[in-house]
């Protein structure tokens, strides 16, 4: 039987942000084409920045920061910017003339990227589902900003999960849970100090009206972090596993069995 020390060591390894095959953070799934990948990342970063600017121009001033939509979209944009940065670092500085990767240990910037991607990939579907089911008003209709922040954002997350080689660990669901809990606490504090939305109403969203509909607000505050976020993370993890399964059957044929098994173990999402 494993000793307690071994079990603790394995748990720490599972939770950690270390990853042996660090090129996985900065390449496409099937082919290592650093320049093309860096250009792809630049396009996504530029696009998301334009959406942020456009939403800022049409927003209600500083109160834009009270909405979960923008917490999620700004995190997604930041993750795109960091991934663009690391993709260019990999292309220009992190490999030698033979194409070999320099680092023996995961650089800190890749660990930051790992956390941002974990949060953005999970929270983007969460906020989009909530928006269309509980917040969206059919009478006003969708806007370009709402479509980008509650639709195209999810499409980009799914596209990234499918075509990039970025790792996903199932146990990292707690990153998005913490993010959602922090926002939930913020909404309670904001309401407690008398904060209002852009219409001067005493809540951020109608579903978070702690004064008028306390039971509904509490339901959302509990369900989103502890049910919605873990389920969406499991969805992303499932796509990740399917992507890898297809990859090992097609794009990985040129590698030896030993290399394939080593990489498959690393990308299992458990270690």
Automatic annotation (TrEMBL):
Annotated transmembrane regions: 38-58, 70-93, 114-135, 141-159, 171-193, 217-240
Keywords: Membrane, Transmembrane, Transmembrane helix
Pfam families assigned: Rost
InterPro entries: Rost
Entry keyword Protein transport: no
One GO CC annotation: membrane
The organism's place on the tree of life at top rank: Eukaryota
Protein name (record): Protein rolling stone-like
Native source species: Patella caerulea (Rayed Mediterranean limpet)
């Amino acid at each position: 039987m494993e000793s307690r020390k071994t079990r603790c060591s394995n748990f720490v390894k599972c939770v950690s942000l270390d990853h042996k095959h660090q090129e996985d953070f900065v390449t496409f799934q099937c082919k290592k084409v650093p320049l093309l990948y860096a250009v792809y990342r630049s396009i996504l970063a530029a696009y998301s920045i334009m959406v942020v600017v456009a939403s800022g121009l049409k927003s209600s001033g500083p109160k834009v920061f009270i909405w979960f939509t923008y917490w999620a979209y700004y995190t997604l944009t930041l993750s795109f910017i960091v991934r663009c940065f690391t993709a260019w670092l990999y292309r220009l500085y992190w490999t030698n003339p033979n194409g070999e990767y320099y680092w023996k240990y995961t650089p800190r910037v890749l660990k930051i990227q790992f956390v941002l991607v974990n949060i953005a990939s999970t929270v983007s579907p969460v906020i989009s589902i909530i928006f269309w089911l509980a917040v969206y008003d059919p009478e006003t209709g969708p806007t370009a900003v709402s479509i980008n922040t509650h639709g195209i954002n999810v499409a980009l997350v799914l596209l990234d999960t499918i075509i990039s080689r970025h790792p996903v660990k199932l146990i990292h669901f707690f990153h998005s849970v913490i993010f959602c809990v922090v926002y939930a606490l913020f909404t309670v504090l904001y309401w407690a100090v008398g904060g209002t939305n852009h219409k001067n109403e005493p809540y951020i969203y109608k579903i978070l009206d702690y004064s008028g509909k306390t039971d509904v607000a509490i339901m959302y505050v509990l369900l989103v972090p502890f049910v919605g976020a873990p389920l969406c993370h499991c969805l992303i993890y499932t796509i990740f596993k399917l992507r890898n399964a297809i990859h090992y059957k097609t794009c990985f044929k040129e590698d030896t069995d030993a290399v394939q098994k080593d990489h498959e173990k690393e990308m299992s999402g458990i270690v």
